[in-house]
Amino acid sequence: MKRLALFVVVLLACASCCGGKPATEPTGVGAVEQHEGRDVYHISASLPVDYTEDMEWVLRYDKNDVEELRQRAATEDKECDVLFFGSSSIRLWKSLQEDMAPLKVVNRGYGGAMLRDIHYNYETVLAEYRPKAFVFYCDNDLGGFDRDLQPTQLFDLYRLLVERLKADYPDCPIYILSIKFNENRVAKREDHRLFNTLMEDYAKWADGVTFVDVNSPLLRADGSVDNGYFESDLLHVNRKGYAVWTSVLKPMLRAQLGK
Description:
Helices cover about 35% and strands about 20% of the residues. It has about 260 residues and is α/β, with parallel strands linked by helices.
């Protein structure tokens, strides 16, 4: 548990902006003055607020999965065609190098990753690798947990990640994999659907961003999930599921990279 002492400055709307007088006038914090016919409130003090936030969840994988990424980065060749990163659906893709051949790929996924802690571990995950393209998947922020985000909040974090990647790797195209529907998190189905819709629309106008629908091929004709593509946990795709993902994604990457 980390305790943060914050000093919060509260700015009250001036009366002329709101079309009326404030209900109460605070004392000892500031004063209202006339400026060019408007009431302007000047802050002269701050209000100390004692605030406690549990941030340990951000570091929950730091001593195993993320530490493994650190160790691998010390020995792996940093040149690659495609850097895959994200949560366990990437990490568990054990046949990734074989599936993507002749592309040279590196797998930087880690189990349980949320986009919030991927931002936190950004430099560790990407290290000094020099890819020609990125592939990203992460769905745990909409996983049915106490700390779940709203789909629109996750969408904003995805866009922030895209902007970070564009700033640091301006010549690298970014491939965003859709969130897969699954029976393990069926209660989050509509959140997943909304997020996929937002990302698909975003990628239509965002330069260098491609939304890859790896969800629809795992569904039956009636829209239900085909569990034959999933492990027994009904969450992670199995070898057949990864084969489908490969059939969708690999031609895009090869065309992009000319291989």
